[in-house]
Design brief:
Blueprint: H1 2-18, H2 23-32, H3 37-61, H4 67-88, H5 93-115
Helix pairs in contact: 1-3, 2-3
Amino acid sequence: MITLALVGIIVGILSSVSGLGGGFMIVPLLIFLGREAKLAVGTSFVFILVVAISSIIAHYRLGNVDIKTGLMLGLGGVIGAQIGPQILQHVSEQNFKRVFSVLLVITAVWMFVDSKGGS
């Protein structure tokens, strides 16, 4: 349990700095710890919820929050969040791992290439 809390601290820092939510780190960690992919995804959202609320407060205090844009994105996200688990129910563990890992690699390559823009 202490190990999970320490990992939570590290991922919480990385999430609040990057805005990536942490699921991309928590899901592989939970799978590595022997959790089924679907359980790892659902569990990661508990982590994301708690960290997101805390991050919103901290970023709001610093003036780094566009409430209107965030709420509009969130509205679409709520709809998508109801569809996603239904899709996941029909995806095998093996295919989930493959698709998730490809998305992580694509994201990493995109961010690396974009970082060379000089900003």
